[in-house]
Amino acid sequence: xxxxxxxxxxxxxxxxxxxxxxxxxxxxxxxxxxxxxxxxxxxxxxxxxxxxxxxxxxxxxxxxxxxxxxxxxxxxxxxxxxxxxxxxxxxxxxxxxxxxxxxxx
Length: 105
Description:
The chain has four helices and no strands. It has helices at 10-22, 27-34, 38-51, 61-97. The chain is rod-shaped and about 90 Å long.
C-alpha cells in the first residue's frame, strides 16, 4: 500500500534539523523517531548549516535597498519636473520670437 504524502511544517523541519545539528543522536535514530527518511534529515541539517548565518544578517538590509530606490526615484522625478519647466519656458520663448514649433522633427 502506498503511503499518503505528508506535509511537514517548517517548525517540525527546523526541530529535526536542529536535533541533527546537535549530534546527540544519529541521523538514523532521529529519522526513525520522527518516521522520516534519513536522507531527508541529512538534507534539512545541511540546509540549516548553510543558511544559519541568514538569521544574523542585518534585518534592515532590504529596507536600505528600498530607501536607495526611493531616493533614486525622487531624484528622477525632480529631474523630469525640471525638464518639463525648461521645455515650457523654451516653447514660450519660441512663441514670443515667432518661431514655428510645428516644423519640429
